[in-house]
């Protein structure tokens, strides 16, 4: 029988094949990248607002909301990458809120591409979080049998 001792698990991680805590799920990286894309879309929408809106008050409100949404997405992506427990719930809520938020803006001509991409990405983030919800738990360690 073979067993991994704690030192062997750490040594196996130096070549990039895993992590010593058993939590190196690629789904966290994918969800983190999707959240970074959501932040980029929020910033894109801010740029479109600055170009198309003629009233300074309306533009300031929309840009501040877009910047706040981008900041929340970036913080959640960072939490996802570091394995924070709250990041899964936050990513799910961002994904669930993205599609209605994009639909509310009405898919006007200038916003069609960012809104469609935001709605599709939000659905993918929510589905990705739900698909990997139970996998984030650490597997139980089995005792090492005596020789």
Keywords:
5 helices; mainly alpha; 147 residues; 69% helix; disordered N terminus
DSSP summary: helix tally:
5
What is the percentage of strand-forming residues? under 5%
Report the uncertain regions: 1-23
Principal-axes shape call: elongated
Major beta sheet summary: none
Radius of gyration: 20 Å
Q: Helices and strands, in N-to-C order?
A: HHHHH
SS-based structural class? mainly alpha
Describe the structure.
There is one protein chain. The protein has 147 residues and is mostly helical. 69% of the residues lie in helices and 0% in strands. The chain has one domain (24-133). It is elongated, with a radius of gyration of 20 Å. Mean pLDDT is 77; it is low at 1-23.
Strand and helix layout:
Elements: H1 6-13, H2 26-52, H3 56-82, H4 86-104, H5 112-131
Helix pairs in contact: 2-3, 2-5, 3-4, 4-5
What is this entry, summarized?
This protein is an all-alpha fold. Helix content is 69%, strand content 0%.
């Amino acid at each position: 029988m073979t067993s991994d001792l704690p030192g062997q698990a750490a040594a196996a991680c130096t070549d990039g094949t895993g992590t010593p805590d058993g939590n190196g799920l690629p789904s966290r990286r994918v969800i983190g990248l999707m959240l970074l894309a959501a932040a980029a879309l929020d910033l894109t929408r801010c740029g479109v607002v600055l170009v198309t809106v003629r009233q300074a008050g309306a533009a300031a409100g929309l840009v501040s909301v877009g910047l706040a949404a981008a900041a929340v997405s970036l913080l959640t992506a960072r939490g996802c990458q570091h394995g924070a427990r709250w990041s899964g719930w936050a990513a799910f809520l961002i994904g669930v809120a993205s599609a209605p938020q994009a639909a509310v803006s009405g898919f006007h001509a200038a916003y069609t591409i960012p809104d469609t991409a935001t709605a599709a990405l939000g659905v993918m983030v929510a589905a990705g979080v739900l698909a990997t919800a139970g996998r984030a738990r650490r597997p139980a360690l089995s005792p090492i049998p005596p020789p």
